[in-house]
Amino acid sequence: MPMIQLAAPSGALTAEGRENVQSELAAVLLRWEGAPDTFFRAQAWSYLHELPAGAQVTAEDSADNAAPPFRVDVTVPQGAVSDRRKAGLVKDATETVLRAAGLTDADALRVWVLIHEQAEGTWGAGGGIVRYSELVALAQKARETAGA
């Protein structure tokens, strides 16, 4: 049950990028989390936060020279994503944002990806606590059903 959020300056994404970036980021997250493409697809929430001009800058930016910065926040259950998967997630999320903004690899440092691991017992949905072990069991059952 991962969540991914992109904060971007308003107007920094291309029209096509704005239309597709949320679903593309959600797909990247599911792939690197290793979740099956079943029930989990509807649980992979993706947010786009478009910020007004000047709401997000670096200390070096001036009003005349502000290349757009982007922040991708990823929230997953603790232990759900190995270091190798985190590295792949960061790489693919960065590439997805760059494409959505019409930028090149030279702009990669403008994209920061922060992975937040939600501690066991602190993720709630449907009025109750969701445990990582329960998600693993659901994923295993989905894989078995798909293979049957």
Separate helix tally: 4
Shape descriptor: elongated
Cα-to-Cα separation, first versus last residue: 24 Å
Main sheet attributes: strand count, strand direction, barrel closure = 4 strands, mixed
- What is the average per-residue confidence, as pLDDT, rounded to a whole number? 87
Tell me the number of strands: 6
Rg computed from alpha carbons, rounded to a whole number of angstroms: 17 Å
Description:
- With 148 residues, the protein is of the alpha/beta class.
- It contains four helices and six strands.
- The protein has helices spanning 15-33, 39-43, 83-101, 132-147, and strands at 3-9, 45-51, 70-77, 111-118, 124-125, 128-129.
- It has a four-stranded mixed beta sheet with strand order 2-1-3-4. Strands 5-6 form a two-stranded antiparallel sheet.
- The longest helix has 19 residues, at 15-33.
- It is elongated.
Short précis:
This protein has 148 residues and is α/β, with parallel strands linked by helices. The chain has helices at residues 15-33, 39-43, 83-101, 132-147, and strands at residues 3-9, 45-51, 70-77, 111-118, 124-125, 128-129. It contains four helices and six strands.
